[in-house]
Write a structure and sequence with these properties.
A hairpin with a 4-residue loop joins strand 6 and strand 7. The termini are close together. The strands form two sheets. Strands 1, 2, 3, 4, 5, 6, 7 and 12 form an eight-stranded mixed β-sheet that branches. This protein has a domain of about 250 residues: 2-Layer Sandwich (Ribosomal Protein S5, domain 2), CATH 3.30.230.10. Helix 10 runs antiparallel to helix 11. It contains 14 helices and twelve strands. It is an alpha+beta fold. The radius of gyration is 22 Å and the shape is globular. Keywords: ATP-binding, Kinase, Nucleotide-binding, Transferase. InterPro entries: Galactokinase, GalKase_N, GHMP_kinase_C_dom, GHMP_kinase_C_sf, GHMP_kinase_N_dom, Ribosomal_Su5_D2-typ_SF, Ribsml_uS5_D2-typ_fold_subgr. This is Ghmp kinase. Belongs to the GHMP kinase family. GalK subfamily. GO terms for molecular function: ATP binding; galactokinase activity.
Length: about 475
């Protein structure tokens, strides 16, 4: 597609025309690798995501408020005749280039690569085993997301590999795929299962994932969010609950802390701890609650959202009601005395449920309403935005306990500089922070925020990035 036509296409999709340079760079990388310009190819835009609210809620069946970032991956994928996937990666912010090669017909005993190449390798192997894919690709990607920034670059790589391999192997029209994953929401859930290695129903058995016990929030946002809007989803199963247009006159300013949120062995237990606590708290609520004798009726792994709904039905109250929260808490407390088989400290299960219930039942739907969306769409409520986001950030530090000094300092300082709300997001132990500000003040706010941060954390200056996101981007889509 000629440059002008590509730029027009990107604008129609809701992207800036300047994105065309990323696709041109990816195409050139393939040509430089010896791939003929006449080779049949596809191109995709795959964004990072911003978790506006909904910290560690998805795998527990809760809610999230999400949008697609306007930074991400420009992808060009050329067809091959063998079962090999060659990946050429360009990371624009660091000017680094990397290559990886994985085989669709790899045996289960073959070791997986380390680092960023793990994600395409895990995806290719799972798709080959679940759907019998054998058509390989040579894929080049150009990425302007900061590495390990909390914007889900790893989930974006899984998504882009799926899109490219599905296009090469005509998987979208496969009856097998349609039967197993009839909706886009179910596809997003499957992409989450690729990452965590779990089964996705009886017909799509799991394989080795990447070692994290996450849900499908990231993949849902990357795949399904729309240009210029936020979306509220609930999970287990994935369901769209509300669309929220980005309020006119407001923009997100993003701060990449430079505290790299790596998921290596040294942090894996910390990442997975929140998920494990959520599961243990849900099981404790079932076993310690009034319906304990019926626990065999529950799924193998009850979720915190499910036990909340059960308590709400029993009390005939909304799930967000304080009495419902207290009823579940009362069921958890007997097992929350420091003698739980998991070895978790006293009070850990109650804290985890407290954070989950507040985030999922109060913060997420309340923030959607405050931004002028939800079932009763109306004016923006700036006071409510600040109150709800401050509460979410406070519980992140006190209950999830996955913040760092940088990701506590950034939201607090953003609020002191006039942001309507500011919150850390991502799995934790690093990552990014968003601040919601008036559009006319965004550039000066970003400059002042960055200067203050670099002064407070000079060792983060080389990796930190601050930028204004004019509007949420479209989710993953075909460009050519």
């Amino acid at each position: 597609m000629p440059g002008g036509a590509l730029e027009s296409r990107l604008v129609r999709l809701g992207l800036d025309a300047s994105r065309a340079s990323g696709f041109a760079a990816a195409a050139k990388r393939l040509i430089d690798a010896g791939i003929s310009p006449s080779t049949r190819a596809s191109a995709f835009w795959v964004p990072g995501r911003i978790e506006v609210a909904g910290k560690h809620t998805d795998y527990a069946g809760g809610r999230s408020l999400l949008c697609a970032a306007n930074r991400g991956f420009a992808v060009v994928s050329a067809e091959r005749e063998d079962a090999v996937c060659r990946i050429f990666a360009t990371f624009e912010l660091t000017c680094e280039q990397a290559e990886a090669e994985v085989r669709l017909d790899a045996s289960a005993s073959e070791p997986l690569p380390e680092g960023w190449a793990l994600y395409p390798a895990v995806t290719a192997r799972r798709l080959a085993r679940n759907f019998g894919l054998r058509g390989g690709i040579s894929l080049a990607l150009s990425c302007d997301l900061a590495e390990a920034s909390g914007m889900s670059s790893s989930s974006a790589v899984i998504t882009l590999m799926f899109l490219a391999l599905a296009a090469r192997n005509k998987l979208g029209s496969s009856p097998e795929l349609v039967r197993a994953l009839p909706t886009a929401e179910q596809l997003a859930h499957y992409l989450g299962c690729i990452e965590n290695g779990q089964d996705c129903g009886p017909s799509l058995p799991g394989d080795r994932g990447v070692g994290t016990f996450g849900g499908s929030e990231d993949h849902t946002a990357i795949l399904l969010c729309g240009a210029g809007e936020l979306r509220q989803y609930s999970f287990c199963p994935t369901r769209l609950e509300a669309r929220v247009r980005m309020p006119p006159g407001l923009v997100f300013v993003l701060a990449v802390s430079g505290a790299v949120a790596r998921k290596g062995a040294e942090r894996l237990a910390d990442y997975n701890n929140a998920a494990l606590l959520a599961g243990w708290a849900a099981t404790s609520a079932v076993e310690g609650g009034p319906d304990a004798e019926r626990r065999a009726d529950w799924a193998v792994r009850p979720t915190l959202a499910a036990v909340t709904r059960a308590a709400a039905a029993r009390l005939q109250m909304p799930p967000a009601a304080p009495a419902v929260k207290q009823a579940v808490m009362d069921s958890i407390i007997p097992a929350d005395n420091g003698t739980h088989p998991s070895g978790c400290e006293a009070g850990a299960l109650a804290r985890r449920f407290d954070q989950f219930h507040t985030e999922s039942e109060v913060v997420v739907p309340g923030l959607a309403r405050a931004l002028g969306g939800g079932e009763a769409a109306g004016a923006v409520d700036t006071a409510a935005i600040g109150t709800l986001v401050d509460l979410s950030q406070k519980l992140t530090a006190s209950h999830l306990r996955n913040t760092l000094p940088e990701t506590e300092w950034l939201p607090e300082t953003a609020r002191s500089l006039g942001a309507l709300g500011a919150s850390a997001f991502g799995a934790g132990f690093g990552g990014s922070v968003w601040a919601l500000v008036e559009v006319g003040k965004a550039q000066s706010f970003a400059a002042e925020w960055e200067a203050a941060y670099v002064s407070a954390f000079p060792d983060r200056a080389s990796l930190a990035r601050f930028f204004v996101m004019a509007t949420p981007a479209p989710g993953a889509c075909s460009v050519v």
